[in-house]
Amino acid sequence: MTVPDFLTAKKAGRKLSVLTAYDYTTGLLLDSSGVDALLVGDSLGMVMQGNDNPLAVTLEESLYHTRCVSRAARRALVIGDLPFLTYQTSAEQAIISAGRMLKEAGAQAVKLEGGIRCAEAIRRIVECDIPVMGHVGMTPQSVHAFGGFKVQRNEAKILEDALAVEQAGAFAVVLECIPSPLGEEITKKLTIPTIGIGAGPNCDGQVLVVQDMLGMFDEVRPKFVKRYADLGSAIRQAAEKFREEVRDGVFPSPEYSFK
Ligand SMILES: Nc1nc(=O)c2c([nH]1)NC[C@@H]1CN(c3ccc(C(=O)N[C@@H](CCC(=O)O)C(=O)O)cc3)CN21
Ligand SMILES: CC(C)C(=O)C(=O)O
Ligand SMILES: [Mg+2]
């Protein structure tokens, strides 16, 4: 998958599937599933690091996880999510952070949060031939300004933000936690693909956090998460079985031992 393929998919009416990934093993599994892109999200601050929100994630940490995922991706596009305060202070900072995602971590594109207020940064990054995915609606790096991870309903503002992201040259935009009719309206008005997370069924694609959709993480339970597997139970059961077999001297049996 390439950045131009994203635009072709929208024109052809082919839906895009995106999952997050933060490590090599998961990257390999997801890449071989045929999903279109792997997003190394700053949600890693929650699912990998155990923080309450993504704000503490550093650029170095995101580069590290993106490097791991890039090594795994044969087909899927790898998108590095720029962490809080690595692109907001100036266009120069945004270009340098975005450039490091490509130079040092093997990403093919970056993602950043914000509409009108980030349009200049997006424009300047894109001028360097670094593809940018935008992100509007409920932008998790704004959690304190929003007073929590809450559905955003300022329809006029969110539409303006999405249009600004497109006009600034982004190749796609994430729509997060907004009413479905607004997701549909924005998707119709934009020529770039919209990737929804809690934005209804009429976006051009969908993204989920992989630990959520695999049933491995329940410290947040957004309404938009569908559980496609219950790996949490599978992992716990396997570990319990291992613990019991070690306790009872059943493991390791001769077949797992050297003569
Ligand atoms: N594991 C995980 N999954 C995610 O989807 C995710 C992260 N982490 N970290 C970064 C952000 C945070 N996100 C979240 C977190 C919680 C809700 C949530 O619980 N929303 C409520 C809405 C409540 C309201 O509007 O009043 C919900 O019921 O869905 C939504 C998005 C999405 N992102
Ligand atoms: C959920 C997606 C859109 C994201 O930004 C993340 O995982 O950080
Ligand atoms: Mg993110």
From TrEMBL:
Metabolic or biological pathway: Cofactor biosynthesis; (R)-pantothenate biosynthesis; (R)-pantoate from 3-methyl-2-oxobutanoate: step 1/2
Chain positions recorded as Mg(2+) binding sites: 42, 81, 113
SUPFAM superfamilies (alphabetical): Phosphoenolpyruvate/pyruvate domain
GO function terms (MF aspect): 3-methyl-2-oxobutanoate hydroxymethyltransferase activity; magnesium ion binding
Highest taxon in the source lineage: Bacteria
Pfam family, one: Pantoate_transf
Keywords on record: Cytoplasm, Magnesium, Metal-binding, Pantothenate biosynthesis, Transferase
Positions of the catalytic residues: 176 (proton acceptor)
Annotated signal sequence range: none
Catalysed reaction, written as an equation: (6R)-5,10-methylene-5,6,7,8-tetrahydrofolate + 3-methyl-2-oxobutanoate + H2O = 2-dehydropantoate + (6S)-5,6,7,8-tetrahydrofolate
Gene3D superfamilies assigned to the protein according to its UniProt record, in alphabetical order: Phosphoenolpyruvate-binding domains (3.20.20.60)
InterPro entries membership: Pantoate_hydroxy_MeTrfase, Pyrv/PenolPyrv_kinase-like_dom, Pyrv_kinase-like_dom_sf
Binding-site list for 3-methyl-2-oxobutanoate: 42-43, 81, 111
Cofactor: Mg(2+)
Protein name: 3-methyl-2-oxobutanoate hydroxymethyltransferase
EC id: 2.1.2.11
The protein's role, per its UniProt record: Catalyzes the reversible reaction in which hydroxymethyl group from 5,10-methylenetetrahydrofolate is transferred onto alpha-ketoisovalerate to form ketopantoate.
BP GO terms, sorted: pantothenate biosynthetic process
Similarity comment text for this entry: Belongs to the PanB family.
Subcellular location: Cytoplasm
Cofactor note: Binds 1 Mg(2+) ion per subunit.
Quaternary structure (record): Homodecamer; pentamer of dimers.
GO CC aspect terms: cytoplasm
